[in-house]
Amino acid sequence: MTDPALRSAFVRLAQSDGATPTFLNNVTLYRAGAPVPKNPLVYNACLCLVVQGRKTAHLSDRSFTYDTGHYLVVPAVVPFECETAATREEPFLSVTVGIDYLVVREILDTLGSGADAEADGTDRHAGAFLDTMTEPMQNAMLRLLQSLESREEALILGRQAVREIYYRVLAGRQGHILASAARGESAYARVVSALRVMHDSYSSQLDVTALAETANMSVRSFHDHFKAATSLSPVQYLKRIRLEKARQLLVAQGLQAGVAAHMVGYESSSQFSREFKRHFGYAPSEAAEVRA
């Protein structure tokens, strides 16, 4: 159920559809006044908190529906296919909080040993996870939104609210997954390090063996853990990242398909065009029109 105070605080800050930046670089508000059909999106490491409505993020054979009763945690960078339920009368309203692992580790250090004890096997399927929205988390969200009305309060009180939100996630049922990613000690955390390399260097000729070495794993083990976390093989994942980056270039900069293909690491323009159309359902030349 939508909390009236949360909705009121959100609407004062974001009255137009789309993404609205705030005084905090890692906090973005998003509003949709109409249903958004399934489309590919790349989520950076973040928390997704809903004020009103619901959204479903699909990751291969798994789906995560987050709403006013559940929040989504994405500990690493993950390519989803997302669809949003919304109407003009009841728009979808959400708050995205980027994960600052330096702050998360500070909280873990304060909590001490046992704060990040993990359940065997859980982090093998932790590309993203849902947890239950609690009253303390709602209260922290409200304080965050209220602080965003002024730069000074955002930089002081807003940052404190973000810190509390991290703590609430860590204290949740699956908080050990976020803790594990922050500590960098589990197999999942090592896959996260490889994911960051892939997102930083997607246009390079990345080699699975080298990525496995980054994660300090054998190629077989890396492949198994990677697919468990993302539902994709490393090669499939890299392809999706390149295609999404290319789509962004086509839409934002109006580049020719061949130029965008080269910039994201494709050697063959024809192969790029085939894979782009297979993935998005339209040709690269239609990208700007489709996204308009």
Automatic annotation (TrEMBL):
Signal peptide as annotated in the record: none
Domain (HTH araC/xylS-type): residue spans on this chain: 192-290
Keyword check for Transcription: yes
Top-level taxon of the source organism: Bacteria
Single annotated GO MF: DNA-binding transcription factor activity
Keywords, ordered alphabetically: Transcription, Transcription regulation
Family matches, as PANTHER family: ARAC-FAMILY TRANSCRIPTIONAL REGULATOR, ARAC_XYLS FAMILY TRANSCRIPTIONAL REGULATOR
Name of the featured protein: AraC family transcriptional regulator
Species, as recorded: Desulfovibrio subterraneus
